[in-house]
Amino acid sequence: MIITPDNLPEDHALQADIVIIGTGAGGAMAAARFASQGYKIIMLEEGPYVSKKDFTQEENTLVRKMYRRGGALATDDMSIRILQGKVFGGSTTINWMNSFRTPDDVLEEWSADFGLEEYLPSYMESHYQGIEERMSIHTVPEDQHSPQNLIILEAAEKMGIHGEACRNNSHGCIGCGKCGLGCAYDAKQDMRLTYLKDAQQYDCTIFTSTKATRIDYQDNNNQTIHATPQDGSERHVTITTQRTIVAGGAIMTPLLLQHSGLGTGGIVGKYLHLHPVLGSVGLYDREIYPTYGIPMSAYSHELKDITNGYGVWQEVPDLELFLAGVNMPGIGPRRKELMEQANRMGVILTLTRDGASGKSAGQVRWRRGLNPQNGHFALKKYPSITYRLDPLDKKHALMGLRQAIEMHFSAGATKVLPMHAHGFEITNDKQIDAFFQLPMGPNQLSIFSAHPTGSVRMGKDPKQTAVNECMELHHHPGVYVMDGSTLPTAPGVNPMVSILGAVSRAIELGNIGL
Ligand SMILES: Cc1cc2nc3c(=O)[nH]c(=O)nc-3n(C[C@H](O)[C@H](O)[C@H](O)COP(=O)(O)OP(=O)(O)OC[C@H]3O[C@@H](n4cnc5c(N)ncnc54)[C@H](O)[C@@H]3O)c2cc1C
Ligand code: SF4
Fold first, then answer.
1. Ligand 1 near 364 CB (within 6 A)
2. Exposed/middle/buried for 371, CB within 10 Å: 0-12, 13-18, 19+?
3. pTM score, whole prediction
4. For labeling, which of 128, 170, 217, 448 is most exposed (least CB within 10 Å)?
5. Ligand showing the shortest atom-to-Cα distance for residue 67
6. Structural domains of the chain, ranges and CATH numbers in brackets
7. Sequence-distant (≥ 6) Cβ neighbours of residue 175 within 8 angstroms
8. Do 268 and 502 form a contact (C-beta atoms < 8 A)?
9. pLDDT tens-digit profile of 197-232?
């Protein structure tokens, strides 16, 4: 059953066996599994309920409606924009469908460095198989690549480097190119159409536009969740429960835990990974129509292992014009001129598997003081995200950016514009070297992320990690975290299936004890 603020009675006091906060990848998987085991589940989702009739493909309305902070969430210094869904189905409702398993070497690293031998590839196989079946995950057929994706495949062939079709979670996709605004054709098999649907076959009530504001922890069998409908009213929802699962994503989950005084030990909020993305725009003398077609159907991982399994990979985006308009190089008339040539643009995204040095580069926490995002002095604490690209990750990212520029030229671009504040245009090899002499600090290179993970990381050692192998807080039994924040390292592939697989395995391992 779905409850929206419209059909919510006045102040509401409820009881559940398990409360799940967040309806994205992790929350949906947990709901489907536990509901089918006969538990009474209540889910809370801060974002609105949506179905295909809401997906009008109007960017202006839908980005504000379904993206956290209207798509403008960023690090404190505004140097990295972080795209996050705030909607029924979480980020999976607006994501670009790339569906890779966690690579075996990453699972082996989790075992070696975090004691997570339960997640070794042989144990994960059946979980991935089940997910792939439920979400119709398949390799994109050869004849369905858009011109923008063909840039990757053509360049890879000419340069003799890796290039391959991606796998995605679709059924009956017509390639309209609007995955980032929700699928109007119900072709994308996101959480709404898969695991949330499964959960609703059982005793699972989902409150949408309802934000969990605090978890009061009494003991491992008693917690009280406080929530408020997001309709501006003063109403209040209180739920008493025996188990709490926080699945708000790697930015919101640590903030809620910290605000509730949970997960002590100084780990919650640290080790945020972002898979930082650098973009390069190629201008072609043929039409590419980058806003059209299956968004992310080809990739190259030639440089995936530069240092000890850490490196970069190349993909193309679902080019919503809002994303393009904000990140394009140049300002004023120059930006306008560039945007007018959007139909001849092809964009390559260079994603970096961050964390090569093992240090914490990013952190999410509550802070007091001058809020750098709006210049106001915050008497109340504000949610802060800080991130500094580690020198080794930066080296990898720039190697990847160089490769992307070369790929553009190899596929026939006449000009390449890396997304740099200087608006540098490259038309020949010499200019590539000149470009890399430019300063490359924060707010010089345009960086964004759609893959925050790791901020409540999982592992056996309570001094190094926040949750155990069953995703239960080391310091607060009875409270679980089941979302991207638990991944011990950046997975090095687009993370949706990694999150689903890890949550599925944690539930199999864990004895929820009810
Ligand atoms: C634009 C975009 C494109 C992407 N493309 C891909 C792709 O192609 N392939 C891929 O593998 N991954 C992709 N991703 C990433 C992938 O979708 C996410 O990694 C995954 O969905 C994260 O799952 P999660 O459970 O951690 O959180 P989410 O899916 O983000 O869900 C968290 C949910 O919790 C809700 N929430 C948070 N706090 C509260 C609270 N206090 N109370 C109630 N509700 C709360 C949020 O509103 C949100 O709906 C993309 C992401 C974005 C944004
Ligand atoms: S590209 Fe396919 S899956 Fe994406 S929104 Fe269009 S029809 Fe749906």
1. no
2. middle
3. 0.97
4. 217
5. 1
6. 2-68+84-139+185-268+456-509 (3.50.50.60), 142-178+274-354+389-449 (3.30.410)
7. 144, 146, 292, 293, 294
8. no
9. 999 999 999 999 999 999 999 999 999 999 999 998
